[in-house]
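A reminder from the course coordinator: this example appears on the midterm review sheet, so study it carefully.

Given structure:
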């Protein structure tokens, strides 16, 4: 099934979760233009675009960099904080020179949080705590209700968040 998606110039780039295939669509017509494959040793989770390269998460502590034209991996950064690697990086957004990643985790220090990452070093520079935002607090630790998505509105300078099974 589909996972990450980002807009690259006049195209939409989308990856699949475990099928190791990506799709490219025309932004205006939504017609599929091409397909590409990515390494079979990683899952496809999130995508973001900084105007030069595509960032790709896989549910690990690594963020891969993809060429915007060939979609092939050109490098990666390891995301870390003062305690070491930060795992479960999920949906990505590129905002004002930083990578924002929601953490797909039911417990641990980053449950219900978004980390702000330096794209050059991988260092976590900030955290947005969304604890208490969940619409059904009694099921806050049920994986069907976990924080699972972020999107950025450049014009309004707003960050949208959602989760699995959230009503809005």
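Designed residues:
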């Amino acid at each position: 099934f589909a996972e990450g998606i980002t807009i690259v110039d006049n195209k939409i780039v989308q990856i699949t979760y475990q099928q190791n295939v990506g799709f490219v669509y025309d932004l205006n017509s939504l017609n599929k233009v091409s397909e590409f494959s990515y390494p079979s040793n990683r899952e496809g989770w999130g995508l973001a675009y900084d105007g030069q390269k595509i960032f790709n998460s896989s549910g690990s502590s690594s963020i891969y960099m993809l060429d915007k034209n060939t979609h092939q991996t050109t490098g990666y950064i390891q995301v870390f904080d003062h305690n070491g690697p930060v795992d479960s990086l999920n949906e990505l957004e590129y905002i004002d020179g930083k990578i924002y990643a929601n953490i797909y985790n039911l417990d641990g220090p980053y449950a219900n949080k978004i980390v702000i990452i330096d794209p050059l070093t991988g260092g976590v520079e900030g955290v947005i705590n969304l604890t208490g935002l969940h619409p059904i607090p009694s099921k806050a630790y049920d994986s069907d209700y976990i924080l699972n998505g972020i999107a950025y509105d450049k014009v309004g300078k707003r960050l949208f968040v959602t989760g699995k099974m959230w009503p809005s």
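The first strand starts at residue 2 and ends at 8. Residues 55 and 65 are 5 Å apart (CA to CA).
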